[in-house]
Amino acid sequence: MSKEKFYLISSDILPESILKTVEAKKLFESGEVETVNQAVERVDLSRSAYYKYKDKIFPFNAATYQQIITISFTLEHKSGVLSQLLRFVAEKGGNILTINQSIPLQGIANVVLSVDTAALLIPTSEFVEEIQQIDGVKKVVIVGQG
């Protein structure tokens, strides 16, 4: 079995059906249309072409501009602390990708979040500083970035 190969190609040399597939995917994934049928009709593409290409073409910026940080937290084990933390991340434009939480021991819970910061409304350093001000957050450490 051969490995997949990937290429970076300028969109101006791609066949029209591939470009229309990208547009149809955007319409469907954004919720602008409710079905694949509506998406392909809107961009004037056959369903067979859509299904042929949909799992093989992705916008370059989806991988390029995404910045994910992994943050470890030590939280007090009291009602609402994790909820406040998650609300803060959402309000600042962060998108939580994963949440891992240990069972609280001796009044402390360890939580690790992976956060997509591509749409963050404030600089990452300020984001982390403000998280430390949340009542019940005892420690914040960025353990990974990529």
Description of the molecule:
There is one protein chain. This protein has helices spanning 16-30, 36-43, 47-53, 60-64, 81-91, 124-131, and strands spanning 68-76, 95-101, 108-116, 137-145. It is an alpha+beta fold and 146 residues long. The protein has 2 domains: 11-62; 68-145, ACT domain (Alpha-Beta Plaits), CATH 3.30.70.260. A 4-stranded antiparallel β-sheet has the order 2-3-1-4, with helices on one face. Helix 1 (16-30) crosses helix 2 (36-43). The two termini are 30 Å apart. The model has no long low-confidence stretch (mean pLDDT 88).
Map the helices and strands.
Elements: H1 16-30, H2 36-43, H3 47-53, H4 60-64, E1 68-76, H5 81-91, E2 95-101, E3 108-116, H6 124-131, E4 137-145
Structure, briefly:
The protein is of the alpha+beta class. The protein has six helices and four strands.
Task: Please give the alpha-carbon distance between the first and last residues.
Answer: 30 Å
- What is the C-level CATH assignment of the largest domain? Alpha Beta
The count of domains is 2
**Fold-level CATH name of the largest domain:** Alpha-Beta Plaits
Q: State the order of secondary-structure elements, H for helix, E for strand.
A: HHHHEHEEHE
The 3D shape can be described as elongated
**Corresponding CATH superfamily of the largest domain:** ACT domain
Beta-strand residue percentage = 15-25%
- The oligomeric state of the chains shown is single chain
Helix content: 25-40%
Total strands: 4
Low-confidence stretches: none
Mean pLDDT: 88
What would you report as the Rg, rounded to the nearest angstrom?
Answer: 21 Å
Look at the helices and sheets and give the structural class: alpha+beta
Number of helices: 6
Widest β-sheet, arrangement of strands: 2-3-1-4
Architecture (CATH level 2) name of the largest domain = 2-Layer Sandwich
